[in-house]
Task: structure prediction
Amino acid sequence: MNWITNYVRPKINSILGRREMPENLWIKDPETGEMVFHKDLEENQWVIPSSGHHMKISGKERLKFFFDDGAYELIENPKVATDPLKFRDEKRYVDRLKENRTKAGMEDAVLSATGTIEGLPIVAVVQDFTFMGGSLGMAAGEAIIKGFETAVMLRRPLVLFSASGGARMQEGILSLMQLARTTVAVDRLKEAGLPYIVVLTNPTTGGVTASYAMLGDVHIAEPGALIGFAGARVIEQTIREKLPEGFQRSEYLMEHGMVDMVVSRLQMKETVARLLKIFVGEKPTEAAPAPMPAPETTATETLPVS
Result:
């Protein structure tokens, strides 16, 4: 125990009326090193205003930013076996789950919800990277399938936000089975004639990329998102070649036809709403026209004499 830090300093601060300053008031931009006030960043949907860098956000925050007025209704996720393989590495799998549930404030890595965007009723499914890297296990797979089943039942389009490191190793083959099961859920949505839009966020990798994340009618990626199946280092070692700059990033993948568009989080809602309204036959909301620039005048200009 540090006597000066733990006793003397708090005592002096209390006498002088000082308050301890929180350590997370400022957040550093990973690209430029600029310090940004966290309240400004939160109001800007965790997008750095100067550089446009997209920070990771939680599933609940994403739903709040995406739905009209931040209002949505969560779909209850089905219950599954907690630890079917009795897995243990450095610690027990059940203990890892408890830690992540406390940290993330959710039961597993996926949230499904109903709500509206620009008045259009939809179902949204969100993967939260905070919970064990958004890994896909039985609980996450069931939650995704439940979201698709709800969309079919309510006859609503589905928007899925992917963020994952892939299948959850602690559940072995049971995790890999979710790739096939979620693919079947996508097929059922398409058989019902309902639109399916995927928003690929940073990162989307592994088996998630090899299944439902790349089966949408439209694939939108957030700027700078890492998207791929195998890691770049593994690919380089396999093909024995140096990969190009920006390989597996959103912009590179759009240039090479793997994603349809790269859209900032700040324009995501209006972009998705416009696409879905086209799919369902509604007239898209037109963006307000930009004001015409005022004519430039100079001191030497004179008015014509009538």
Remarks:
- The first strand starts at residue 26 and ends at 28.
- The longest helix spans residues 172-191.
- Confidence is low (pLDDT under 50) at residues 294-306.
